[in-house]
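Example protein as discussed:

>
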Amino acid sequence: MKKNVLKIGLFAIILIGTFSCKNKEKELADKRIVELESFVDSLKSVSDAEREANWEQISADFEKKEISANASLMDLDEETRLASQAKIDASITKYDEYKVTVQSNQTVVAAKPNPSQMLRDRLFGAGKIGSDMSFAWVNKDNILSVYDNFYNAYKDNKSDFTREDYDEIKLMYEALDSRKNTVENEGLSSSDNTKIASIKFKLSPMFKVNRMGAKSRENEEAKE
């Protein structure tokens, strides 16, 4: 009789321990799922601009919480696991809606032409000059052609430039001149140097007159 009582007691202890363990596993899973749900729900209060600006961090945080929530399901019984998985999937669906919106907006922004870059491409060739105004690719062998191409592109498009365009062109021109000073010390031939000086001589007064013309044109358009 004693042995039976001991066996029953031992079984009860094991059973209680098992239930306790399963309860803890369920509690942990519930906690991880709530954290995931709360995180996704919190994105409602974030503006589109903020989401886009911080999407990399948002994405990383979501991934951590999703992995943590899924990992907590491993030791649950099948019925509980399926119910918990459904909650996780619902949060993923909500998150994916935000993700699609952010990615769509980023694609639209990327597709919009950058006026400044278009201007740089028009005067120096596609992709030659970026916002850093670096002319590191210009050397003693190609600098004459760079000035020549710039001058010709400028003449062909001068009637289309706005006053702001001229201000940016001036900055590009000054950056090119700065590069020329470096190239002169790297073996620029006297012949090429003379030809560049001729281009600069023709361009300088033209630039001043054209900018004044653009200013007058914009003032007249503003009055209409």
Remarks:
- The chain has two domains: 10-111, 115-223.
- Confidence is low (pLDDT under 50) at residues 1-20.
